Amino acid sequence: MLFISLTVFISAIPMKETYKKIILQRREKKQGVSPEKNSDGAAVKKTIVQNFLRPMHMLVTEPVVFFLSLYTAFTFAILFLFFAAIPYVFERPPYRFTISQTGLVFLSIGLGVCLASITGLVIDTRLYQVKHREAVSTGQMHAQPEHRLYNAMIGSLGIPVGLFWFAWTANAGVHWAVLAVGAIPFAWGNLCLFISAAMYMVDVYGPMNGASAMAANGIFRYTLGAIFPLFTVQMYEKLGIGWATSLLGFLSILMLPIPWVLFKYGPGIRKRSRYPVMM
User: Where does the chain cross the membrane (predicted)?
Assistant: First the structure.
């Protein structure tokens, strides 16, 4: 999480504010306009609706929100699971790492996160911006939101590769470096998926409802992220390192088509949304 937080923070430094509400508040402040005041009851109700009720409603009624949240929550939970799985694997024979040595293995996850950030920048400049300029040249305001899914589509391939790599190199007891490298494609695919899903949902639902969609995603992610580490050691002891991690790999393959399906059928799905969406 430190690696992800640091990467996101550094990436956000040169960015400009895009949240409409904040932009308007800053403009009002600069112009000396007094902000509209709501009663305490209305403010509390608005907060509850925006921060909890609407996200939960979107999670259960919007296919885009549900399936992307399910997928990102699952991969996010595996990331948390690794905090228990990596010590379990490396502190046992044949590796017998110390706690300090085990901690260094997590650098491979950090490297995967950095590579995902670079991938996102390359895809944005070489693919999305090209599609955006083409759309603007034809009189549209934006490229279709589905063009935000390129990251997720390629990242979805890295997730099972990393999991199966980790599973069977660990099971075979090969050199620790080969095993550690296996975490890189997983971490790369994980962040590629999350970045893409976040941008897609915000593009689809706009600033306000997009924030609620991301809140729903966050609720799902952190719920699974809290649950998975609770049964990690028991699962690894019961199934063994190879099959326990492979089980996660097989589940990731089941979810792999989600961004691809949304890329192809997203416009039709958006038309049936209960919320205002970008068309």
Answer: 64-90, 102-123, 149-168, 174-202, 214-235, 241-263
Q: What is the pLDDT of residues 150-175, one digit of tens each?
A: 999 999 999 999 999 999 998 787 89
What is the chain's mean pLDDT, rounded?
89
User: Which residues, 6 or more positions from 138, have their beta carbon under 8 angstroms from its beta carbon?
Assistant: none
Half-sphere exposure of residue 266: CA atoms within 13 angstroms, side-chain side = 26
Q: How far is CA 168 from CA 61, 87, 90, 116, 180, in A?
A: 39, 16, 14, 24, 12
Contact 201, 271 (CB under 8 A): no
pLDDT at 128 over 90: yes
Cβ atoms of residues 184 and 100 within 8 Å: no
**How many other CB atoms are there within 10 angstroms of residue 2's CB atom?**
9
Return the SS3 of 196: helix
What gap in Å lies between CA 56 and CA 63, rounded to an integer?
13
Cβ–Cβ under 8 Å, residues 158 and 249: no
User: CA-to-CA distance for 162 and 167, rounded, in angstroms?
Assistant: 8
Residues 81-122 have pLDDT tens digits of 999 999 999 998 889 999 999 999 999 999 999 999 999 999
Nearest alpha-carbon partner for 117 in 186, 195, 183, 214 = 195
| pTM of the predicted protein model | 0.85
